[in-house]
Design a protein that fits this description.
single chain, alpha/beta
Protein backbone atom coordinates (compact mmCIF):
# COMPACT_ATOMS: atom_id res chain seq x y z
CA UNK A 1 0.00 0.00 0.00
CA UNK A 2 1.00 3.62 -0.45
CA UNK A 3 2.63 5.00 2.68
CA UNK A 4 5.01 7.70 1.46
CA UNK A 5 5.49 10.07 -1.47
CA UNK A 6 9.02 11.23 -2.28
CA UNK A 7 9.44 14.21 -4.59
CA UNK A 8 12.43 15.19 -6.64
CA UNK A 9 12.60 18.99 -6.63
CA UNK A 10 13.76 20.60 -9.89
CA UNK A 11 11.11 20.02 -12.55
CA UNK A 12 8.86 18.22 -10.05
CA UNK A 13 7.97 20.70 -7.32
CA UNK A 14 8.98 23.79 -9.30
CA UNK A 15 9.86 24.18 -12.98
CA UNK A 16 13.36 25.49 -12.33
CA UNK A 17 15.17 24.19 -15.41
CA UNK A 18 14.79 27.41 -17.46
CA UNK A 19 16.39 29.34 -14.59
CA UNK A 20 19.21 26.81 -14.25
CA UNK A 21 19.80 27.30 -17.98
CA UNK A 22 20.10 31.06 -17.47
CA UNK A 23 22.52 30.55 -14.58
CA UNK A 24 24.65 28.14 -16.61
CA UNK A 25 24.59 30.53 -19.58
CA UNK A 26 26.02 33.27 -17.36
CA UNK A 27 28.51 30.86 -15.81
CA UNK A 28 29.77 29.54 -19.16
CA UNK A 29 29.74 32.96 -20.85
CA UNK A 30 32.44 34.01 -18.38
CA UNK A 31 34.48 31.14 -19.82
CA UNK A 32 33.72 31.94 -23.48
CA UNK A 33 31.40 28.94 -23.85
CA UNK A 34 27.88 29.04 -25.26
CA UNK A 35 26.06 25.67 -25.07
CA UNK A 36 22.79 25.35 -26.98
CA UNK A 37 19.42 24.58 -25.39
CA UNK A 38 19.58 21.15 -27.01
CA UNK A 39 22.90 20.51 -25.26
CA UNK A 40 21.41 21.60 -21.94
CA UNK A 41 18.45 19.27 -22.44
CA UNK A 42 20.78 16.36 -23.14
CA UNK A 43 23.45 17.06 -20.54
CA UNK A 44 21.97 19.25 -17.78
CA UNK A 45 18.39 18.35 -16.88
CA UNK A 46 18.37 15.70 -14.16
CA UNK A 47 22.18 15.52 -13.99
CA UNK A 48 24.43 16.37 -11.05
CA UNK A 49 26.83 19.30 -11.25
CA UNK A 50 29.92 17.10 -11.37
CA UNK A 51 28.70 15.53 -14.61
CA UNK A 52 27.44 18.82 -16.08
CA UNK A 53 30.61 20.78 -15.40
CA UNK A 54 32.88 17.96 -16.54
CA UNK A 55 30.92 17.55 -19.77
CA UNK A 56 30.81 21.20 -20.80
CA UNK A 57 34.30 22.12 -19.59
CA UNK A 58 35.71 19.06 -21.33
CA UNK A 59 37.65 17.60 -18.38
CA UNK A 60 37.02 15.87 -15.09
CA UNK A 61 35.85 18.36 -12.47
CA UNK A 62 36.02 17.02 -8.93
CA UNK A 63 37.10 17.71 -5.38
CA UNK A 64 37.75 21.28 -4.26
CA UNK A 65 37.46 22.65 -7.81
CA UNK A 66 34.00 21.11 -8.17
CA UNK A 67 32.91 22.61 -4.85
CA UNK A 68 34.10 26.09 -5.89
CA UNK A 69 32.57 26.00 -9.37
CA UNK A 70 29.33 24.50 -8.06
CA UNK A 71 29.05 27.27 -5.44
CA UNK A 72 29.54 29.88 -8.16
CA UNK A 73 26.91 28.45 -10.50
CA UNK A 74 24.34 27.64 -7.81
CA UNK A 75 24.81 31.09 -6.29
CA UNK A 76 23.90 32.56 -9.69
CA UNK A 77 20.83 30.30 -9.82
CA UNK A 78 19.60 31.30 -6.37
CA UNK A 79 20.05 34.98 -7.11
CA UNK A 80 18.04 34.63 -10.33
CA UNK A 81 15.36 32.36 -8.87
CA UNK A 82 14.74 33.76 -5.39
CA UNK A 83 11.98 36.07 -6.64
CA UNK A 84 10.58 33.48 -9.06
CA UNK A 85 9.79 30.49 -6.81
CA UNK A 86 6.50 29.15 -8.07
CA UNK A 87 5.23 25.55 -7.79
CA UNK A 88 4.06 23.51 -10.77
CA UNK A 89 0.31 23.89 -11.35
CA UNK A 90 -1.75 22.07 -8.73
CA UNK A 91 1.23 21.03 -6.62
CA UNK A 92 0.25 22.81 -3.40
CA UNK A 93 -3.31 21.52 -3.56
CA UNK A 94 -2.05 17.98 -4.21
CA UNK A 95 0.42 18.26 -1.34
CA UNK A 96 -2.42 19.22 0.99
CA UNK A 97 -4.36 16.12 -0.15
CA UNK A 98 -1.39 13.97 0.83
CA UNK A 99 -1.21 15.58 4.24
CA UNK A 100 -4.96 15.21 4.79
CA UNK A 101 -4.60 11.51 3.96
CA UNK A 102 -1.72 11.26 6.48
CA UNK A 103 0.73 10.11 3.81
CA UNK A 104 4.38 10.74 4.63
CA UNK A 105 6.16 13.17 2.31
CA UNK A 106 9.80 13.80 1.48
CA UNK A 107 12.05 15.59 -0.98
CA UNK A 108 15.12 13.90 -2.51
CA UNK A 109 17.09 16.15 -4.85
CA UNK A 110 20.45 16.18 -6.60
CA UNK A 111 20.58 19.93 -5.98
CA UNK A 112 22.61 21.44 -3.14
CA UNK A 113 21.06 21.98 0.29
CA UNK A 114 20.97 25.76 -0.18
CA UNK A 115 18.68 25.36 -3.22
CA UNK A 116 16.42 22.99 -1.32
CA UNK A 117 16.20 25.42 1.58
CA UNK A 118 15.35 28.29 -0.79
CA UNK A 119 12.54 26.46 -2.60
CA UNK A 120 11.02 24.42 0.24
CA UNK A 121 11.41 27.37 2.60
CA UNK A 122 9.73 29.81 0.22
CA UNK A 123 6.82 27.40 -0.30
CA UNK A 124 6.54 26.97 3.47
CA UNK A 125 6.17 23.18 3.45
CA UNK A 126 9.41 22.10 5.10
CA UNK A 127 7.75 21.37 8.43
CA UNK A 128 5.43 18.93 6.66
CA UNK A 129 8.27 17.01 5.00
CA UNK A 130 9.40 14.05 7.10
CA UNK A 131 12.67 13.83 5.15
CA UNK A 132 14.70 16.32 3.12
CA UNK A 133 17.82 15.04 1.36
CA UNK A 134 20.11 17.02 -0.98
CA UNK A 135 23.31 16.34 -2.91
CA UNK A 136 25.44 16.68 0.22
CA UNK A 137 23.58 13.77 1.85
CA UNK A 138 24.63 11.04 -0.60
CA UNK A 139 27.85 9.62 -2.01
CA UNK A 140 26.30 8.35 -5.25
CA UNK A 141 24.00 10.41 -7.44
CA UNK A 142 20.96 9.37 -9.49
CA UNK A 143 20.42 6.98 -11.30
CA UNK A 144 21.94 5.27 -8.27
CA UNK A 145 19.05 4.64 -5.84
CA UNK A 146 20.95 5.82 -2.75
CA UNK A 147 18.97 9.02 -2.17
CA UNK A 148 15.64 7.20 -2.44
CA UNK A 149 16.69 4.28 -0.27
CA UNK A 150 18.02 6.69 2.37
CA UNK A 151 14.74 8.62 2.18
CA UNK A 152 12.71 5.44 2.75
CA UNK A 153 14.90 4.46 5.68
CA UNK A 154 14.53 7.93 7.21
CA UNK A 155 10.76 7.71 6.76
CA UNK A 156 10.68 4.21 8.23
CA UNK A 157 8.88 2.85 5.17
CA UNK A 158 9.76 -0.08 2.91
CA UNK A 159 10.70 0.94 -0.67
CA UNK A 160 7.76 -0.98 -2.15
CA UNK A 161 5.39 1.29 -0.22
CA UNK A 162 6.94 4.49 -1.60
CA UNK A 163 5.93 6.52 -4.66
CA UNK A 164 8.49 8.72 -6.39
CA UNK A 165 7.74 11.79 -8.54
CA UNK A 166 10.51 12.43 -11.08
CA UNK A 167 11.00 14.39 -14.31
CA UNK A 168 14.31 13.08 -15.67
CA UNK A 169 15.62 9.78 -17.02
CA UNK A 170 18.30 9.46 -14.33
CA UNK A 171 15.87 10.40 -11.56
CA UNK A 172 13.09 8.06 -12.67
CA UNK A 173 15.69 5.31 -13.08
CA UNK A 174 16.85 5.95 -9.49
CA UNK A 175 13.30 5.45 -8.24
CA UNK A 176 12.89 2.28 -10.26
CA UNK A 177 16.28 1.01 -9.09
CA UNK A 178 15.13 1.61 -5.51
CA UNK A 179 12.17 -0.72 -6.08
CA UNK A 180 9.61 2.09 -5.85
CA UNK A 181 6.64 3.07 -7.98
CA UNK A 182 7.40 6.11 -10.14
CA UNK A 183 5.28 8.93 -11.55
CA UNK A 184 6.88 10.70 -14.51
CA UNK A 185 6.31 14.47 -14.41
CA UNK A 186 6.42 15.70 -18.02
CA UNK A 187 7.76 19.18 -17.28
CA UNK A 188 11.08 18.78 -19.09
CA UNK A 189 10.89 15.51 -21.02
CA UNK A 190 8.38 13.45 -23.00
CA UNK A 191 7.23 9.95 -22.09
CA UNK A 192 9.58 8.60 -24.74
CA UNK A 193 12.56 10.30 -23.07
CA UNK A 194 11.84 8.68 -19.69
CA UNK A 195 12.07 5.05 -18.62
CA UNK A 196 8.73 3.24 -18.29
CA UNK A 197 6.90 4.80 -15.32
CA UNK A 198 3.77 3.67 -13.51
CA UNK A 199 1.94 6.93 -14.31
CA UNK A 200 2.65 10.14 -16.22
CA UNK A 201 1.34 13.63 -15.45
CA UNK A 202 1.74 17.03 -17.08
CA UNK A 203 1.02 18.74 -13.75
CA UNK A 204 -0.83 18.04 -10.49
CA UNK A 205 -4.21 19.51 -11.34
CA UNK A 206 -6.95 16.99 -10.64
CA UNK A 207 -4.54 14.35 -9.33
CA UNK A 208 -6.13 12.49 -6.41
CA UNK A 209 -5.05 10.03 -3.74
CA UNK A 210 -7.21 7.30 -5.32
CA UNK A 211 -5.25 7.70 -8.57
CA UNK A 212 -2.09 6.86 -6.66
CA UNK A 213 -3.58 4.08 -4.57
CA UNK A 214 -4.53 2.16 -7.71
CA UNK A 215 -0.84 1.89 -8.60
CA UNK A 216 -0.30 -0.34 -5.58
CA UNK A 217 -3.08 -2.87 -6.30
Amino acid sequence: MLQAVIFDMDGVICHTNPFHSIAFQQFFAKRNLNPTEEEYAAHMYGKNNGYILSHFLGRKIEGEELALLEDEKEGLFREIYKEEVNPIAGYMEFFEKLKSAEILTAVATSAPRANLDLIIGTLGIGHQMQSQLASEDVARHKPDPEVYLKSAAKLGVNPENCLVFEDSFSGASAGINAGMKVVGVLSSHTKEELPVCDLYIDDYRGLGINDLGRLFK
